[in-house]
Design goal:
It contains 8 helices and 6 strands; from the N terminus they run H-H-H-H-E-E-E-E-H-E-H-E-H-H. By secondary structure, the protein is α/β, with parallel strands linked by helices. This is IS5 family transposase.
Length: 271
Amino acid sequence: MTERKTGHDYEISYELWTKIKALLPLPKPKKKAGRPREDDRKIMNGIFYLLRTGCQWKALPRFYGVPGTVHDRFQEWQRSGLFEKIWQLGLMDYDDEEGLEWEWQAIDGAMTKAPLGGAGTGANPTDRGKIGTKRSLLTDGKGIPLSVVVDGANRHDKMLVKGTIDAIIIERPSHKVTQNIRMDKGYDFPDIRQLVDDYGYTAHIRKRGEENIRIDIPGYRARRWVVERTHSWLNRFRRMLIKWEKKIENYLAMLHLACAWITFRAAGLFE
């Protein structure tokens, strides 16, 4: 019988916490004396537990603190941009350790349910018109997430390309390496080909109506699958399977933390 995991199995490693701690914003000074501020690491572990398990805020185990306190701290850190900074640091560490593969990038969208609605949602054409969210993800050639944006499920993938490229959170080496971008046939439009060309990419887009045939060319590698795999990695964080956050900023913060975890793990910071 498989042993059931407990909350402590989802805690952030000491190595990663050391890096996160250096990015924490200074807490606001208290106007009057009261209870001491809850430990930041405990609170971050609670946020990560919620990200991994997908549980409700009120269902957080109490050893992470009062759920309301954990949520308030999450909001505080979200407004400071902390989760994006963690992801950005992870990318820089990965680039130092492994090297980002800028030569071949890939972009694709994925849709999730959003039963509570809110910003960044729309009727999902693949789910009988139920409310859903679409995330557009850009990765390097190995599937390391470089950018993610969110919009309604009814938003066409092509409409998110510019925003996704603009949202890359570290500087692209635009003049140092030839950059190719893999896209599926859903992006096969003249304006998209021109757009990615304007951004300095060489587009590799399967044409609509073209059969998905095996290409027997020496040295040929399928390259777009890496972004689909990264979407799958994100879905292992159960909070990402369904958008419960009404505020799009909160949903993005969770996405940023998930992308940071994927990146630090790929850099070999922890198992």
